[in-house]
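Technical annex B. To support the medicinal chemistry partners, we prepared a structural model of the target in complex with zinc ion, based solely on the information shown next.
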Amino acid sequence: MTTTDTNERGNAEATMGWKIRSAVEGFVTTLDGQLRERPISLTADLGTHTEAEPLEGIAAALLAVGHARGLLYSYVRTARSDGLTWRQVGKALALEKQAKHEERPLAELAFEYIAGAGDAWRPSTFGWRCGSCLQMVTDRGPYNGHPRDDEYGHSASCQRLRRARRS
Ligand SMILES: [Zn+2]
């Protein structure tokens, strides 16, 4: 990544941050909540900025987190629907370092990040529609090593499942 790319990425991240802040404050004011000027820092003279009253800000920011999480699930659903693997999803979730540190398969960490860890009595699942056979699939995670044993719901003639069987 060049310096220009890094700068552009930094700028894009900052813009996203400001848009989220603006959406949160917009939500608060729509519900007749209060915004006020507060110092950016209590220990250094960095000027002031507008903030929601803290408790109203917490409730609105929590809503934004919920929306972002919903968007994350939606993209993961699409990725799995397209035939991308949990390992690929794990890379996009930036879990490679953690996988190395915990000495665990990246694919399993990715699944657990999205679906929760579950346990023997109540295993976690994640649902998506197969882009090949168009059936709803209950994904039990990448633990058995083959889609036939991990993904329930593909049609008997699903081409994607057949391809996976051959490989
Ligand atoms: Zn299928």
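Notes passed to the chemistry partners:
The chain has a mean pLDDT of 93.
Strands lie at 35-39, 48-52, 126-129, 136-139, 151-152.
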